[in-house]
Design goal:
This protein has a domain of about 50 residues. The N and C termini lie far apart (about 185 Å). The N terminus is likely disordered. The chain has about 200 residues and is mainly α. The protein is rod-shaped. Pfam families: ATP-synt_B (PF00430). It is found in: Cell membrane; Endomembrane system. One of its GO terms (molecular function) is proton-transporting ATP synthase activity, rotational mechanism. One of its GO terms (cellular component) is plasma membrane. Belongs to the ATPase B chain family.
Amino acid sequence: MANVEHTTETPVVTPVNMEETHAEVVEHGATADAGLAASLGINAQLFVFQLINFTVVAVILWFLVLKPLTKTLAERKKMIDESIDNAKEIETNLALSEKEYQDKLKEAKGEANKVIEHAHTEAKQLGEDMKVKAKTEVEGIVAQAKKSIQSEKVQMMEEIRQESATLIVTALEKILNEKMDGNIDKKIIEDSLKNLKK
């Protein structure tokens, strides 16, 4: 160490003295730091190297692992958010589709009910028309049958008259035992027929 004189006068510091003083302070500080680290059981030089190694490893990990991992996680988060948004949109679309389906189903049911009601009305009308037609046909058949019966009745009455006239003439001939002339025959026949009509 440099000799420092202790006098009552203020010491004069020269540039050479300053350098020496600075060297002493640095040496004393290093000794003090080494003494403090040694007292804690830490090798200061090894600690500095480990700190540098840790910093280098941390930087390498950051750039090679953590930064890509953070980027990947951010992309995954973005993908998940997009998937959630898509799922919500799909759910909304599904709800709208379900509503449209229910509306169309109601509309189809309404249309089906209208068709069924229309078919029921048409069937009822057709049934009524068929009844009227059948009634008309039956009435026509009955009228035809009545005409036919009337015609047959007239024809039978005519045949009965002719037969009756023949029977009356034959009976009269037998009774009178002689043949009557045409005028008498005719008169007797007409009287007999008048009696038959009554």
